[in-house]
UniProtKB/TrEMBL annotation, chains A, B:
GO cellular component: cytoplasm
Organism: Kribbella amoyensis
EC number: 6.1.1.21
Family stated for the protein in its record: Belongs to the class-II aminoacyl-tRNA synthetase family.
Region spans: Disordered: 411-445
Species lineage: Bacteria, Bacillati, Actinomycetota, Actinomycetes, Propionibacteriales
Keywords carried by this UniProt record: Aminoacyl-tRNA synthetase, ATP-binding, Cytoplasm, Ligase, Nucleotide-binding, Protein biosynthesis
Record-given protein name: Histidine--tRNA ligase
InterPro entries according to UniProt: aa-tRNA-synth_II, aa-tRNA-synth_II/BPL/LPL, Anticodon-bd, Anticodon-bd_dom_sf, His-tRNA-ligase, HisRS-like_core, HisRS/HisZ
The Aminoacyl-transfer RNA synthetases class-II family profile domain, residue ranges: 20-347
SUBUNIT field: Homodimer.
Length: 445, 445
């Protein structure tokens, strides 16, 4: 067997960091359920034709799968690819099961996705996303465009996450604006403007001109991308640029309504930012990106938007809106900044010490009695001296060691050294010691 | 977009069945943590060379992945395959991170795995497994071979699962027995005998003879596979066949110890069954298969074993033992038998009715107050008449609808029709209505 090397883009956690990730996933799930979202999981694979043509980036990123032992006449697994997000599979799930779902359908989905992009800091080829979406049959009310960021904010605020902002735009604004300007290849313009943070406004103007825009059109497109506000004042700033189009009016009205409602329910949570584009082509209305304040250069830790035409079977269309938390990106980021760690590397709160192998059966009964009351316990792997048992617990951060003594069972808090008599039927560790805790550390940066 | 068809072997749940699966996963996780197992997740992919050569079945089953847009000089993703179990990736994880783990290392892992086999009832190409393993550095005590089935039984007994039995064997018994008989190609003999349930004992004898055994050797091999006992009496039955080999002695002693200890801690849980083989080549000691009693023909719903040489870096070997619950197989089976279902299709316990769209802000505040106290709530999608709101809740199984009336807020139990005044700061539904319950139904079969 060859030497073992990590595979770039496929990160893994050690047990104590995994405890941090589990805490994030538990809080996110609990919050989504409190808001009435039902869990589903979709299979990891979709037909490649369904994954393709969702946007420039997506097409480059698909992993195909094939049975290594497949014979020529066995096409099973042919033309299947790993999903690169959870929205495209969800849209397919809705179409496939529409007869058995109740609309509007609120679902959450926490799963891995795969993207074959070039690995770089914070960009993974395999990562976990936590998505909420609401789809309806026929028409989707606009109020969901306000509700979803509130749900996401509710989850993130229960977590040890630094200050964040959800930036929001509406695809109809750039689309209407570009059309009003006379730029009709909206997708191309959008993709070029989307690079503004990477290449700067001058290069964007240059590329727009290369793509056929006049200098004036290009500059106005860049000016639009510069507009932002934490209230509805962005509307006036767009109007001041003097471009008119019915789609632009629609977009401004919808985003204005979102910002007005957000101001009532969660002042400061949303920022209208007309630079926000999202790389995927299926969005048609509101688009969101979640940023850690002051860490915008790291990129977003989540995002989403409204898609009106992704799920359609020709007869019925199921418009939807969704937002995703990039759990892996977020947790890896906070851990790598040294902001969070698990208080121990195991769920175990109590180690039952063994002085002789013959006592194992008795130790297992003690362990069972403690577990019955929700206390995580393990029995020592082998009979050993006092000091060795303490060391075993200490190495894993297990706070308590249980001993059989001539005076009956006793339990030692190995941090304080305090040792007291204990009855397996009644003794309970302090609440904060029963399960590993997430420790928020001082910022290292 | 082409018509949507399910992909054979990649099953998906509707929301109310997913609630059953989530309950299983929650109880399994909770039990594993109470027994001191730490969670890890490994990436979905491993180098193909690491996945290969783990057994006849495994090799046929590997899905390779490749970037669809990969160019000839870009070999990223080359020679990676989706894992077909969680043991091989875990062994690799142990080797990769051995310097940062504390041994013996107890871990659980609940993830999807993929196998490109021919789909048939209860055989999936994508399914979820829940594994526990304990690995040690250098030597692994035998008592873990008893502990692991006890943990699995603890989990299954907390679940609405029919009676089950864990059948256990020790690879050294057939190996020593075959060698004692003079059959030295143990792997080939094992694979042929493993087909006994499918093709019957006569065909097994025939195939063994084709593979070079004498008639007498073949018949004795089949006789061995026929031995079983719920106590240690299997030892005498093997002795009576008159075959001798030191490896056989070792296997009988180890399996005898497992059965003796199990009789003390969990009488009736284990059955020694010398037919149990497991299809994977890496097992070297105890092997387990979990069956639902009376449904043996469905195949096992879990299994595992001891592997002494899977994780080795040349200097250090990390022997391990593990058992896996085939969660997808088990849950799909129980649901398809009509034994289990979720009490509703959504986490929502209370629907806040809306009589006018202007009341949405107030309804959202009521919802937030209820959620604060752990009650899953959603606000009606649109203002509508009384009857329509009740129908909306009824269709999803939501038990309570919250109304604003001229006398203040009231809540209606739509099952009984009872409607009472309610304060968002204090009203709480009965405990069993807060979350969806798993309903165990009468057996249909």
């Amino acid at each position: 067997m060859s030497k073992i090397n990590p595979i770039s883009g496929f990160p893994e956690f050690l047990p104590s960091d995994r405890i941090v990730e589990q805490h994030f996933l538990d809080v996110i799930r609990e919050t989504f359920e409190l808001h009435g979202f039902a869990s589903i999981e979709t299979r990891a694979v979709e037909p490649v034709e369904r994954l393709s043509n969702q946007g420039e980036d997506a097409d480059k990123e698909i992993y195909g799968i094939r049975r290594l032992a497949a014979t020529a006449d066995d096409d099973s697994g042919a033309n299947l690819g790993l999903h690169f997000d959870l929205t495209v599979p969800f849209a397919r799930y809705v179409l496939e099961h529409s007869g058995k779902l109740a609309f509007p359908f609120r679902r959450y989905q926490i799963q891995k996705v795969w993207r074959g992009e070039r690995p770089q800091e914070g960009r993974y080829r395999e990562f976990t996303q936590a998505d909420i979406d609401i789809v309806d049959s026929g028409e989707l009310p606009n109020h969901y465009e306000v509700e979803l960021p509130l749900v996401i904010a509710d989850a993130l605020r229960k977590l040890p996450v630094p200050e964040f902002v959800i930036k929001v735009n509406n695809r109809k604004i750039p689309e209407g604006f570009y059309r009003g300007l006379g730029l009709d290849d909206v997708t191309t313009v959008l993709r070029i403007v989307d690079k503004i943070d990477k290449i700067g406004p001058d290069k964007v103007v240059e590329r727009l001109v290369e793509a056929g825009a006049t200098d004036k059109q290009a500059k106005l497109a860049v000016q639009l991308a510069d507009i932002s506000s934490t209230d509805t004042s962005f509307v006036e700033q767009v109007r001041a640029l003097g471009v008119e189009h019915p789609t632009l009016d629609e977009g401004l009205e919808q985003l204005g309504a979102v910002m007005a409602a957000a101001a009532e329910h969660a002042p400061g949570l949303l920022m209208a930012d007309l630079r926000i584009a999202r790389g995927l082509d299926y969005y048609t209305g509101a688009v969101y990106e979640i940023y850690l304040v002051g860490q915008e250069s790291f990129g977003s830790v989540g995002g989403g938007g409204r898609y009106d035409a992704l799920a359609s079977d020709g007869r019925t269309t199921y418009p939807g809106v969704g937002i995703s938390i990039g759990v892996s990106r977020l947790v890896h980021r906070l851990i790598s900044l040294g902001l969070l760690k698990g208080s121990r590397s195991t769920p175990t709160a109590v180690l039952i010490a063994l002085t002789a192998e013959e006592d194992r059966a008795e130790a297992m009964r003690t362990a069972a009695a403690l577990r019955q009351r929700g206390i995580p316990v393990e029995v020592a792997p082998a009979a050993a001296k006092f000091g060795k048992q303490i060391k075993f617990a200490d190495r894993r951060g297990i706070p308590f060691v249980w001993f059989s003594t001539d005076n009956g069972p006793e339990v030692k808090d190995i941090r304080s050294g305090e040792q007291v008599p204990a009855d397996p039927a009644t003794w309970t560790p302090p609440g904060e010691d029963v399960r590993p805790q997430i420790e928020a550390l001082e910022e290292n940066s």
